[in-house]
């Protein structure tokens, strides 16, 4: 099996925002071996790049490539999958908004999606992100993201038109999900707990020395 290489792409208009959040992806990942335009054109030339199970429209996904930060998987020099996301802050929390993931059918079963999501989690942990949030369509995707530790925070049913709003079978169920990175090994909550334990141990050792 060919190795999966993960690279990042950063549109020029997002560079300033990443610096303001003290995020430098070059410290943990390699910048794309292809330019943003090359990746965009390669994906644009393949209308089947987004499989139905990813629950995202191809036209919408193409737009994300030019406006979001991207992680893409490369196999034998071809783009085998791409994940788009944004970083932001809200109510004092640092967030990753996970906006889309696609991979062509020919790479099904090779772990491309898993590598991309795990790399996103690695990015979040490396830069002290509090939560990764996403919206996905349908139970299949919801259960897929649960495997990474995401939990459902809310759900909604969306209809194709107002005329169909009374027909439940015509609606599509969407889930809002989040991953609390402090609960992942090495997350901020665990580091704080470790520090508190360390201070307690130091105080005990000091008292023992004074007794002697």
Brief overview, please?
The protein is an alpha+beta fold. 34% of the residues lie in helices and 29% in strands. The chain contains six helices and eight strands, in the order βαβααβββαβαββα.
Written account of the structure:
The N and C termini lie far apart (about 65 Å). The chain has one domain (about 5-210): Aminopeptidase. It is an alpha+beta fold and about 210 residues long. An eight-stranded mixed β-sheet has the order 2-1-3-4-5-6-8-7, with helices on both faces. α4 links the parallel β5 (about 95-100) and β6 (about 130-135). The chain is globular. Helix content is about 35%, strand content about 30%.
Key descriptive features of the protein:
212 residues, alpha+beta, Aminopeptidase, 8-stranded mixed beta sheet, 8 strands
Write the CATH architecture name: 3-Layer(aba) Sandwich
Fraction of helical residues:
25-40%
Number of helices: 6
Q: Tell me the major beta sheet.
A: 8 strands, mixed
């Amino acid at each position: 099996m060919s190795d999966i290489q993960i690279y990042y792409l950063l549109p020029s208009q997002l560079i300033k925002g990443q610096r303001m959040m003290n995020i430098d992806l070059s410290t943990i990942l390699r910048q794309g071996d292809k330019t943003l335009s090359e990746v965009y054109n390669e994906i644009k030339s393949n209308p089947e790049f987004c499989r139905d199970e990813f629950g995202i429209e191809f036209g919408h996904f193409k737009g994300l490539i030019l406006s979001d930060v991207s992680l893409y998987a490369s196999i034998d020099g071809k783009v085998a999958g791409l994940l788009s996301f944004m970083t932001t802050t809200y109510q004092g929390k640092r967030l990753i908004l996970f906006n889309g993931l696609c991979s062509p059918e020919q790479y099904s079963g090779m772990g491309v999606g898993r590598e991309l999501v795990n790399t996103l989690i690695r990015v979040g942990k490396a830069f002290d992100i509090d939560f990764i949030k996403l919206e996905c369509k349908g139970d299949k995707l919801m259960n897929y993201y649960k495997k990474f530790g995401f939990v459902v925070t809310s759900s909604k049913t969306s209809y194709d038109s107002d005329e169909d709003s009374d027909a439940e079978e015509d609606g599509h169920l969407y889930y809002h999900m989040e991953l609390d990175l402090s609960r992942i090994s090495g997350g901020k909550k665990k580091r704080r707990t470790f520090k508190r334990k360390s201070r307690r141990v130091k105080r005990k050792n000091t008292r023992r020395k004074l007794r002697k």
